[in-house]
Amino acid sequence: MKTMARLPVWFLTAFVPASAVTAFTTNDNGAVSRRESFSKTASLFGGVVAGSSALVGAPAPSAAVVTDETPKVTTRMGGLLEKYQDSRGWTILAPSGWNKFDGEVGAYDIKWQDLVDPTDNIKLSSTPVKSTTTSVDILGPVEDVGANLASKRNAKLIAALERQTDGILFYTFDFALDDGTHQLLQLCVNKGKIWSLDANTKEKKFSKRKEMYYDILGSFMPKLS
């Protein structure tokens, strides 16, 4: 049985209570896929920050403060995307015609999945954080977070990007996984939650999905505006 890679040591020592480490062990049915582990990592980030009384030993936020605003993506790519506004107060451009699934406990809040190939999917999840946690930079510099996520999961980090849109800082990671899939992962903090949005496909199809996936991530806003 293959066990999942643990979180980086600095994260475990700074944030993770002993009870939280079990979130990254395998279940009775075998190991969780590496693709799923990225989503679980993001969820654990939120849960750990929420459960910590202090951030002693945490990595310092990036010295470079993002001040330039990047507009939210609004293009619908000729009908490939359609606006979705959730009753919980967030919006996104979602793939037109894909199946939509609501809430699987411990996995996602909402998911869109291609009708033909389930490997092509978009998942959004959220986890409460401390009220004093207002930005994703609490996790550290974007490059360090991306490198740690990649190295512990035998994935190649293609890009680690940060942007500010409507006053919210977003971290975006581009990963090539060793199971032949490709994933974009985006993290942000707003409204007392850390939000994780991931877009997945087979590696051989990523070049065709890339523009649409980046537009989807760029369109997400965890508040109504």
Keywords:
disordered N terminus, 225 residues, two-stranded antiparallel sheet, alpha+beta, 32% strand, single chain
Structure in a nutshell:
This protein is of the alpha+beta class. It has 5 helices and 9 strands.
Q: How is this structure best described in words?
A:
With 225 residues, the chain is of the alpha+beta class. It has helices at residues 9-14, 18-21, 34-51, 142-151, 206-219; strands spanning 81-86, 90-95, 99-104, 108-113, 121-128, 156-165, 168-176, 181-190, 193-202. The longest helix is centred in the N-terminal third of the chain and has 18 residues, at 34-51.
Secondary structure elements and pairings:
Blueprint: H1 9-14, H2 18-21, H3 34-51, E1 81-86, E2 90-95, E3 99-104, E4 108-113, E5 121-128, H4 142-151, E6 156-165, E7 168-176, E8 181-190, E9 193-202, H5 206-219
Antiparallel strand pairs: 1-2, 3-4, 4-5, 5-9, 6-7, 7-8, 8-9
Report strand %. Answer: 25-35%
Helix tally equals: 5
Report the count of strand segments: 9
- Overall outline: globular
| Strand arrangement, major sheet | 3-4-5-9-8-7-6
Mean pLDDT: 78
Whole-Å distance between the termini? 47 Å
Largest pleated sheet: 7 strands, antiparallel
Sequence stretches where pLDDT stays below 50 over 5 or more residues:
1-32, 46-63
* Overall helicity: 10-25%
The structure class reads alpha+beta
Rounded radius of gyration (Å): 17 Å
Would you list the SSEs in sequence order as H and E? HHHEEEEEHEEEEH
